[in-house]
């Protein structure tokens, strides 16, 4: 299957099984996805508010001071022309006020009257200036971040309808793997067990230490049991290794034993082509997913950004993200009839991308220095000056839950 088609199918499968909606307090909504459009409960602003410190006045000056208007309170109306109240920025204009005089452009006469020249434009924010009550400000599917939370609060909301965070689990296959200490004596250190959960959290998943199992014994019954147990509590189970058909690769037979249906099974992409996504129906009739990541570490991350990221976007009710473009600063080879995902570092000053070194399928050194993967189309080479899509890696900042 072509790489673009595989991504499309993964996203559509996730969207068809979009996660349930929950109403959560604003402080718990960060990182979730709006399940309904965001609209204000009142006009924004809800009433006329002064945009400066000064005097709210009625009629021509000079003006007699009759009170004070502070933010958070309703002041008495201005009774007649020639009256004024001292007003603070953000305070509600009293009824009868037809202008605001800036404090720095005002003076006080000897008998206590306020004088000054009014500007020709209003010095207040009008009701509905930002939005009208019920107006759609953000559509469903918008990721919730601090800016969205602040906007929701300003609209009068205490809670938001969001998609539940995907619950994920990780199974690591391979008797050759060590979980502690340096590699040696024919065994290699498992790099994906510690790393993949952190990647999944950056894609919005709920996954903790108890959701990791491995290494799972290289037998078919052990694979079936581990998958069945993980699927009982997760929306997505990622596995590492076993995606080929070697003598100890049991993932495909295990999926068959569980009645799984392939969404994607191998992709024309290098590195990482033996990747897969399969759908398993739970006892409750809701779909769960297994994402088979290759055992080579860099190939596993290629599968993660290629298939798992769009699948999770669909599950969270989000559109598949558009890939930004970068300009190649150096040549990048093609990979024949397969899409080539080449690790690159992006210079933010001019948006140019340069390949990094140490990018073998089993290597992670290059990945630790990269910003994403430049996409070289099948049958093509990347030449300096070419604009190509970039699959960005998730933000490097940690996710605290």
Automatic annotation (TrEMBL):
Q: Which UniProt keywords apply?
A: Magnesium, Metal-binding, Molybdenum, Molybdenum cofactor biosynthesis, Transferase
Kindly state which reaction or reactions the protein catalyses. Answer: adenylyl-molybdopterin + molybdate = Mo-molybdopterin + AMP + H(+)
Q: Which domain of life is it from?
A: Bacteria
Check the record and name the Pfam families matching this protein: MoCF_biosynth, MoeA_C, MoeA_N
> Entry's SUPFAM superfamilies?
MoeA C-terminal domain-like, MoeA N-terminal region -like, Molybdenum cofactor biosynthesis proteins
Swiss-Prot/TrEMBL cofactor(s): Mg(2+)
Protein's pathway:
Cofactor biosynthesis; molybdopterin biosynthesis
Q: Which residues cross the membrane?
A: none
According to the entry, every stretch annotated as the MoaB/Mog domain falls at 169-314
Q: What does this protein do?
A: Catalyzes the insertion of molybdate into adenylated molybdopterin with the concomitant release of AMP.
Q: Which PANTHER family match?
A: GEPHYRIN, MOLYBDOPTERIN BIOSYNTHESIS PROTEIN
The Swiss-Prot or TrEMBL record describes its family as follows:
Belongs to the MoeA family.
- Name the chain's protein: Molybdopterin molybdenumtransferase
Write down the species.
Answer: Plantactinospora siamensis
Its lineage reads: Bacteria, Bacillati, Actinomycetota, Actinomycetes, Micromonosporales
């Amino acid at each position: 299957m072509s790489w673009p088609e595989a991504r499309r199918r993964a996203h559509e499968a996730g969207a068809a099984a979009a996660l349930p909606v929950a109403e959560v307090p604003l402080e718990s909504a960060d990182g979730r996805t709006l399940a309904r459009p965001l609209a204000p409960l009142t006009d924004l602003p809800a009433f006329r508010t002064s945009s400066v410190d000064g005097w709210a006045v009625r009629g021509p000056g000079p003006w007699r001071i009759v009170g004070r208007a502070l933010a958070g309170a309703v002041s008495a109306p201005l009774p007649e022309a020639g009256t004024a109240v001292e007003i603070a920025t953000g305070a509600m204009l009293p009824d009868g006020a037809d202008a605001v005089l800036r404090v720095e452009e005002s003076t006080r006469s000897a008998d206590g009257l306020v004088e000054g020249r009014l500007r020709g434009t209003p010095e207040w924010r009008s009701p509905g200036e930002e939005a009208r009550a019920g107006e759609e400000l953000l559509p469903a599917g918008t990721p919730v971040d601090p800016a969205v939370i602040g906007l929701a609060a300003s609209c009068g909301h205490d809670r938001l309808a969001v998609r539940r965070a995907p619950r994920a689990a990780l199974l690591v296959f391979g008797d050759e793997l060590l979980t502690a200490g340096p590699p040696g004596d024919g065994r290699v250190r498992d790099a994906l067990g510690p790393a993949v959960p952190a990647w999944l959290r950056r894609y919005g998943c709920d996954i903790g230490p108890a959701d990791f199992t491995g290494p799972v014994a290289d037998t078919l019954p052990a694979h079936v049991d581990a998958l069945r147990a993980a699927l009982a509590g997760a929306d997505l189970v990622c596995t590492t290794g076993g995606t080929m058909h070697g003598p100890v690769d049991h993932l495909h037979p295990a999926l068959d034993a569980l009645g799984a249906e392939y969404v994607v099974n191998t992709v024309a992409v290098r590195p990482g082509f033996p990747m897969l996504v399969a759908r398993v129906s739970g006892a409750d009739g809701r779909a769960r997913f297994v994402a088979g990541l290759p055992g080579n570490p860099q190939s596993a991350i290629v599968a993660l950004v290629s298939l798992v990221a769009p699948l999770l976007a669909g599950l969270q009710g989000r559109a598949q993200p558009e890939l930004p473009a970068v300009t190649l600063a150096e040549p990048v080879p093609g990979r024949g009839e397969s899409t080539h995902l080449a690790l690159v570092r992006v210079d933010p000053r001019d948006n140019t991308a340069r390949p990094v070194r140490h990018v073998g399928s089993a290597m992670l050194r290059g990945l630790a220095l990269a910003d994403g993967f430049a996409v070289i189309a099948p049958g093509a080479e990347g030449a300096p000056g070419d604009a190509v899509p970039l699959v960005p890696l998730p933000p490097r900042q940690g996710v605290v839950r």
